[in-house]
Protein: Transcription factor-like protein
Organism: Dinothrombium tinctorium
Amino acid sequence: MCVATNFERSDFFFKNVFVSKNDELKAAKRKRATSRAIAPTVLKKRRVAANERERRRMHCLNVAFDKLRQVVPSLENDRKLSKYETLQMARSYILALNELLLKQ
């Protein structure tokens, strides 16, 4: 499963995932100072696992961009917006919606 679809879940995600990742990094730095030589097979397994996590992360990121593309108005329907264009359009759309709210 990838990213949460509503704002409550995304708020939970930011509060818990980023805080826990920071704690994990601090713990990893402490462990590295006392580590010994690691067997090549262990290193290879770790690399394979890290690659799989990265593939999963990128897949979830791409799914999130696809969902964002579906809700952001697009000028051209014949081609898919790039990630950068999607973020630009989302920003513009949010600003336009904000202006509408402020005018009311």
About this structure: The chain has three helices and no strands. The longest helix spans residues 40-71.
